[in-house]
TrEMBL record:
Cross-referenced InterPro entries: MATE_fam, MdtK-like, YsiQ
Transmembrane segments: 52-73, 85-109, 129-149, 161-184, 190-215, 235-263, 283-303, 315-333, 345-362, 383-403, 409-431
Bilayer disposition of the protein: Multi-pass membrane protein
Lineage of source species: Bacteria, Bacillati, Bacillota, Bacilli, Bacillales
Keyword Transmembrane helix carried by entry: yes
Annotated Pfam families: MatE
Name of the protein this chain belongs to: MATE family efflux transporter
Superkingdom, taxonomy of origin: Bacteria
Xref: PANTHER family: MULTIDRUG AND TOXIN EFFLUX PROTEIN MATE FAMILY (PTHR42925), VIRULENCE FACTOR MVIN (PTHR42925:SF1)
Keyword vocabulary terms for this entry: Cell membrane, Membrane, Transmembrane, Transmembrane helix, Transport
Localization in the cell: Cell membrane
Length: 461
């Protein structure tokens, strides 16, 4: 049986997260591949719609992310009842926000699509996809909050198993609706939207079942009335800067997608394909970053400051190696890989250039994700928020417009802006973490002075 100490080791936390993210990547890849059989226009619509959905998820992920970090800290401090209360509140609040978003997206799909400068011929497709998938945003909210809560109790296998089941169901329904197989009607993009909704509904049910037994004391129906103002205040204190940070990212991504829409449908489709391909490089690093955040929050909550500080560097070096290696592999097989998705020679040429730029992008992204997650784990979320607002808007979005649109560099200009943004934020978070300002905050002076002053490894990692 896994002990409490072993449950929060980096490897035990990371490998199920990695498999879960791989399955999510598979879901996105299969989605993109199958939708490409409908048309490249459909791919462009799905890509832009998903950016919109990601922007709106920050509204409930503000609560879920803050709650996840606080749950790991409380469990590390042996305050299991507080962790349980935080979890219940996070799921409940996220569900309410998700329901409100569902109503807005279902009834306001066409106006929202028009905001992002889509070509007129793409609007009917966007209207259909946004109204159906966006109408189920409450399911996305529940899935995100439930997975975050369960994962931060140290159970990273549960969300992984759920992702596996969701993938199988989604692929099955996708194939049936797109190609009219297994007695399904041939519905094209509408079928893809319905498939997404059905798979998320089943996954939500499974996660809810798992959630009720996530803590030592089982969660009962009457527990949903629980609301602890002080604990919720702690959640928001950690969570609202995370929400602003996530909002900055997704809204600057939306701005860049708007620039791409101005460049044309081919550039928009290319970037959508590249999102799928780049995820194969960054998911290893992202899995390690999430595991680092859970582990460091647990160590920090238990007062094990030296271990919390050192463990970040081990995860970072591993992540840098994996992200760089996978980027090189992608570069070597790039032409064949892109050919799976599209036969358009212009899109393939654009995509090959982007894959070369990806080799520069991924190490900066890993540095930013890994050390940024360490800062979040100890509650230093405002610093990440401040640098994100500045860098993402002035460098990522501002430089994208300057290079991509004003100077006519196109998609390559947007990639240059993204690379500059990732490295700038990465260097800034590393400087902050090495200063250990927040690690020492609120600790006795004798313990604060014992924190080591350089990178190293941890026995628990």
């Amino acid at each position: 049986m896994t002990t409490e100490k072993n449950k929060f080791t980096l490897w035990v936390l990371a490998w199920p997260i990695f498999i879960e993210l791989t399955l999510q990547l598979l879901l996105g890849t299969v989605d993109t591949l199958m939708v490409s059989r409908v048309s490249d226009d459909a791919v462009a619509v799905v890509g832009l719609s998903n950016q919109l959905f990601q922007a709106l998820t920050t509204l409930f992920m503000t609560v879920a992310s803050g709650a996840g970090i606080l749950i790991a800290q409380k469990l590390g401090a042996r305050k299991a009842e507080d962790a349980r209360t935080v979890a219940i509140m996070a799921v409940k609040v996220s569900a309410v926000i998700g329901m409100l978003l569902s109503i807005v997206l279902h009834f306001g799909a066409r106006p929202l699509a028009q905001v992002f400068q889509l070509e007129e011929r793409l609007l009917p497709l966007a209207d259909t996809y946004i109204s159906i998938v966006g109408g189920g945003m409450v399911l996305t909210a529940l899935m995100a909050s439930l997975s975050t809560v369960i994962r931060n109790t140290g159970n990273t296998k549960g969300p992984m198993i759920t992702a596996l089941g969701m993938n199988v169901i989604h692929v099955f329904f996708n194939y049936g609706f797109i190609f009219g197989s297994y007695g399904f009607p041939k519905l094209g993009l509408t079928g893809v939207a319905i498939s997404t909704l059905v798979s998320r509904l089943l996954a939500t049910g499974f996660l809810l079942f798992m959630f009720t037994s996530a803590f030592d004391r089982k969660i009962q129906f009457m527990d949903w009335r629980i609301f602890h103002r002080k604990l919720f205040g702690e959640v928001l204190k950690i969570g609202w800067p995370l929400g602003v940070n996530m909002s900055s990212y997704v809204f600057t991504q939306l701005a860049m997608y708007t620039f791409l829409a101005m460049l044309g449908a081919k550039e928009l489709a290319t970037r959508t394909y590249m999102n799928t391909l780049e995820s194969s490089c960054s998911m290893l690093g992202f899995a390690l970053s999430l595991a680092m955040q859970i582990q460091i929050a647990h160590l920090y909550g238990g007062g094990r400051i030296r271990e919390a500080y050192k463990s970040s560097y081990r995860g970072l070096w591993i992540g840098l190696g994996l992200a760089t290696g996978s980027s090189v592999i992608l570069l070597l097989v790039s032409k064949q890989y892109l050919g799976i998705f599209t036969a358009d020679p212009e899109i393939i040429t654009l995509g090959l250039s982007c894959i070369a730029m990806n080799l520069l992008l991924q190490p900066g992204k890993m540095l930013n994700m890994g050390i940024g997650s360490a800062l979040n784990a100890v509650g230093d979320t405002r610093y990440n928020m401040y640098i994100s607002i500045g860098s993402m808007w002035m460098v990522a979005a501002g430089l994208s417009y300057l290079l991509g649109i004003h100077l006519s560099w196109g998609l390559m200009g947007i990639y240059v802006a993204m690379i500059c943004d990732e490295y700038l934020r990465g260097v800034l978070v590393l400087y902050r973490w090495r200063g250990q300002k927040f690690l020492r905050k609120g600790l006795p002076s004798s313990e604060a002075s014992s924190v080591s002053q350089g990178p190293g490894t941890t026995a628990q990692a």
